[in-house]
Structure formats: C-alpha cells, structure tokens
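Bit of a strange request maybe. I'm writing a small parser for structure token strings and I need a real example to test against, not something I typed by hand. Could someone generate the tokens for this chain?
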Amino acid sequence: MATPPDQTTRDLAHLAFCALVALQTAIQDGAVASPMAEHLFIVRWLATAQKQKRFPKTVAIDIQLLLDKGRKQGIGAKLKSHLAYVWRSRSGDIQQQSDLFRLTYTLESLKTLGWRNELVTSAEWDSGALDETTVGPAVYVVKTALQSAFTSEGRLITPLVFKVAGDTQTIVDALAASSFTADCLDNVVTLTPQR
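Reply from user aminoacidic:
Good idea to test on real output. This should exercise your parser:
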C-alpha cells in the first residue's frame, strides 16, 4: 500500500526537526563550535539514523540523498540550511515566509512535478536559444537578475523575468499559490514585487 504524500511530508519534517534539535543540543553542550563541526555532526547523525533505522521508510531515500550530498560536497552541501529549509517549508505557513523562500519553495514544488529550474547567463538569455528549446518542462532565469532581485532579507525588490518551456499557466498558478503576482506574455512570466 502506497504512503500518502502528506504522511511523507510529515515524516520528512520530523526528520529535519530531529536533526536540527540534535545539532542545537550539541552546540549548547559545546561539542560543536564551528561550521565544519556542524557539517560533520549532521553527516554522522544522519549515518547513525540510517544505520539504526530511526525513521520510517518514507524518508530513507531522503536520508541517503543528504548523506551522499554531505559526503561529496563537504561543507559546501550546506546541510544545516537544507534541513532548516525542509523544516520551515513543511511545518509552517508558507505565506509567512520571505519572498525568496516562497519562490524557492515554489520552484522545488515544480521539480516534484518534473519541471527543471535552470540558471542561465545573460548571453544565453539574449541568444534566442531558449526560445527554440523543446526540452521541457523547464523554467529559465538569468542568474545575475535572480541575485539582484532580492534584498538580503529575501524581499523581492525588482521584477524577475522567467522564460518557460512548457505550460506557462502552470507556472503562473504555482506562483499565485505562493502569494505572488505574475504576468504572462507568450513564454515569458514576470514576477512583480508586492507593494
């Protein structure tokens, strides 16, 4: 019998919560005092959780993916940030989060539906090659535009333009579900800041 998606979501949120609580406890006890120590703690904690089968099978693949990422990318994997994102996105009201958080959540949700999210250069954007792309569904955004569109607090301050290979209405609807205002013209979707 298949596990309902909302159960998997709850299990994943529980995993993230437990990992973050364990990490915070280790920090308070003085056992973890640097970003590298945080990373090593999380990798060891995940490995122990996997070995002891502490969590339901619904999150076994997530534990393995986090372990693989942590072992391959080292501190660059940003496991603590990833776990915090999982916890916040699965346990709270998404509408209360920052614009950048909600956009990230929306794009991650689209990934689960088979959409790709691609960062491109200005030259790739201007070349017209993206307009001819038939590989979809995908959402393209210029990396520098994305970086400059948000404040350090994650608030959208300038319009952000996406090119879409696929059904643009799906993107507009997904953005609207996360309380964004988006306009659509052909294969271009523009996200506008809230006033």
